[in-house]
Design brief:
Elements lengths: L5 H11 L4 E4 L7 E6 L4 E6 L7 H21 L4 H4 L3 E2 L8 E2 L5 E6 L4 E2 L7 H17 L18 H14 L5 H12 L7 H8 L5 E3 L8 E4 L5 E4 L6 E3 L1 H12 L17 H15 L5 H27 L12 H18 L1 H10 L2
Antiparallel strand pairs: 1-2, 2-3, 3-6, 4-6, 5-6, 7-9, 8-11, 9-10
Length: about 350
């Protein structure tokens, strides 16, 4: 997390005509996030332009999607200032400000009386997050996904992620190939099964939709009082995709018994009780907007997205840790082993998962 100098902070405040003090906020992997302490409060983020190379298009995506959501929320009698993000524009109407040193900053309204969680405390809480993501999908079902810019091309194109892993192994930039071969070989066992969703999307067997593409539990804000999931945040990767990406990634993260940085693999497995809770909540909100083929592929999506995330961690480790933030030298390898253990457990439980899905269709 960077420390502001007086010049850059003053420049940002002038651009938005807001005065505030800043403190680091949250624990995201990609962007630097701050709480802007003012009245009212705001969230200030430095956009990671090494990953999001076109911040203008990224912010246009977010503005278009949140505008649509605000309309649906208002029509349904909800509170759009609380149930979706609100982008604060600069005094000259821009969606972000680029400082003199080339850094890009954006501001959102801070949503009071909310909490975020890294892991669900109980199945009911996880079900609540599932309703939030299912509702997100439902509200965007009639939004033209083709109008969105791909902020990270092929973000959930699992076969291309596998190709990237194989290339990283071949290039061996960081000299780490020998120490990861056992992990690599175990991952490759899942390669063909984890290409099925992408194949179906490209053939048109499942529809292209607006998808969040990063549906970890901590990307839902919960109301402190009701404990209900009320707002989906972190919309940087909102772009065309499959709802299976959103569903599967939520389960990869939330139905695991441990955080993805847990090094003790005895603590890591896939919890079917949490899988059932999430499935129940998600399907209750998405309703008839989901197709039969998508329903069929729901269990496989949990395996696919876990595999994909795991090989991304392993690829980054082979490439010298250039993408994900790390706090110690082998953290990406720890993450990759963690996700592999989860893949192995999900694979063993797929039949049970199919039976659970059938209960709620």
């Amino acid at each position: 997390m960077m420390v502001f100098n007086d010049n850059s902070l003053g420049e940002i405040m002038s651009a938005f005509a807001i005065e505030f003090e800043v403190d680091p906020y949250g624990d995201g992997h990609i962007n630097d996030t701050y709480i802007a302490d003012s009245t009212p409060k705001y969230i200030l983020q430095k956009i990671n332009t090494s990953i999001f190379s076109n911040p203008q298009k990224l912010m246009e995506n977010i503005e278009a999607v949140t505008k649509h959501l605000r309309g649906v929320i208002t029509a349904n009698g909800g509170n759009p200032d609380r149930e979706t993000l609100t982008v604060i524009k600069t005094i000259d109407g821009k969606l972000y400000h680029e400082t003199s040193d080339g850094s890009c900053y954006r501001i959102y309204k801070f949503i009071d009386n909310t909490i975020s969680l890294n892991l669900p405390e109980n199945p009911d809480q996880f079900e609540s997050s599932a309703r939030a993501f299912g509702k997100f999908q439902n509200m965007l079902a009639d939004f033209d996904a083709s109008s969105l810019y791909e902020t990270i091309p092929d973000f959930h194109h699992t076969p291309k992620r596998t190709i990237n892993l194989k290339k990283a192994l071949e290039d061996n930039i960081a000299g780490r190939k020998d120490e990861i071969m056992d992990v690599y070989n175990e991952y490759i066992r899942f390669e063909n099964d984890c290409a099925i969703i992408t194949d179906n999307l490209e053939s048109g067997a499942i529809p292209t939709r607006v998808t969040h593409n990063d549906t970890k539990l901590n990307n839902v804000l919960f109301d402190k009082d009701t404990k209900e999931g009320i707002c989906v945040i972190d919309l940087d990767t909102v772009m065309p995709g499959s709802l299976l990406f959103d569903y599967g990634d939520s389960l990869r993260f939330g139905a695991s018994t441990a955080l993805e940085d847990e090094a003790d693999l005895e603590k890591v497995w896939f919890d079917l009780e949490y899988f059932e809770s999430y499935t129940k909540g998600f399907l209750s909100e998405i309703g008839d907007k989901i197709t039969e083929k998508e329903i069929e592929l729901l269990p496989l999506s949990a395996l696919t997205l876990t595999y994909e995330c795991g090989i991304r961690f392993l690829t980054d480790y082979l490439n010298g840790d250039t993408y994900f933030k790390i706090h110690y030298p082998n953290q990406n390898l720890v993450r990759a082993k963690n996700q592999l253990k989860l893949c192995q457990d999900i694979s063993a439980k797929l039949d049970d998962m199919k039976k659970i899905v059938a209960k709620y269709v």
